[in-house]
Design a protein that fits this description.
With 258 residues, the protein is of the alpha/beta class. It has 7 helices and 9 strands, in the order αβαβββαββαβαβαβα. The radius of gyration is 17 Å and the shape is globular. It binds 8-iodo-guanine.
Length: 258
């Protein structure tokens, strides 16, 4: 019910009855949003029912309504994380609300650590599949959701047509907020993970349970612990995101224009 209430508030405050696409802009993707287009309406997240106040660095806490080629698109600037103490239902609420507001496609972006050899800092990678290692789920009750093709093959093909240099990878979602030890990164590599982060997997599960199509893109902002022996800093992570913004903006706009 909270998602529906938030959806009504979004329609009312933006003057747009239905937004067909929703985009979650994670760390490092906020500047890319500017390339998508100028919002014709913006709402501060705390003013919407059930939306928390994103406190993590790099998250703006705004919901923008933009139009891209006659498509009404909802931009969620920032997200809530489990490590901030939100429940799984609170973490996915913005996505639930966007789908209740009409979103048939949810584009999830995030910043992630690169595990697979050859991944470069500043590189966007399409999410081909995920490992939910949070030990959490946003679902309650007998909601047996099929997650085969949860990461929409057609949307991935479309993205690769737009930017043939895009690679794909398996994203491992962990609780955080600590980064992994080198031994944990070796474990994740053994499990088949190419990318590691602290978000996204719960939102994808919720979106699929509500019948929306999902496309995910990770921005590699650091090579995971032990891959290079360097130490990790969150500041570095944000800086890398800013540097990649123009390319990411073009990619997002291209996807939204299709
Ligand atoms: N768990 C985890 N999350 C991350 N987010 C970013 I940016 N880099 C990392 C990382 O190396 N590990």
């Amino acid at each position: 019910m909270l998602a529906e209430r938030a959806a009504e508030a979004i329609a009312e405050r933006t003057g747009v009855p239905r937004h067909r696409v929703a985009v979650v802009l994670g760390s490092g993707w906020q500047q890319a949003a500017a390339e998508i287009g100028a919002p014709h309406a913006s709402i501060a997240m705390p003013e919407l029912p059930g939306f928390g106040r994103p406190s993590a660095q790099g998250h703006g806490g705004m919901v923008h309504s933009v139009t891209v080629n006659d498509n009404n698109v909802l931009l969620l600037m920032g997200r809530q994380h489990l490590y901030e103490g939100y429940t799984p239902q609170q973490v996915v609420h913005p996505v639930s609300a966007a789908i209740a507001a009409g979103a048939e496609i949810v584009l999830l972006t995030n910043a992630a650590g690169g595990i697979r050899g050859g991944l470069r800092v500043g590189e966007p990678v399409l999410i081909a599949d995920h490992l939910n290692l949070t030990a959490r789920t946003p679902l309650e009750g007998a909601r047996f959701v099929d997650l085969v093709d949860a990461w929409d093959p057609e949307l991935r093909t479309l993205a690769k047509e737009l930017d043939p240099s895009l690679g794909e990878g398996v994203y491992a979602g962990l609780l955080g907020p600590q980064y992994e030890t080198p031994a944990e990164i070796r474990m994740l590599a053994t499990l088949g993970a190419d990318l590691v982060g602290m978000s996204t997997v719960l939102e994808a599960i919720e979106a699929r349970s509500r019948g929306a199509r999902v496309l995910g893109i990770s921005l590699v902002t650091n090579l995971a612990a032990g891959v290079t022996g360097q130490h990790l800093s969150h500041a570095e992570v944000l800086a890398e995101g800013q540097a990649a913004a123009p390319r990411l903006g073009k990619l997002l706009r291209g996807i939204l224009e299709r």
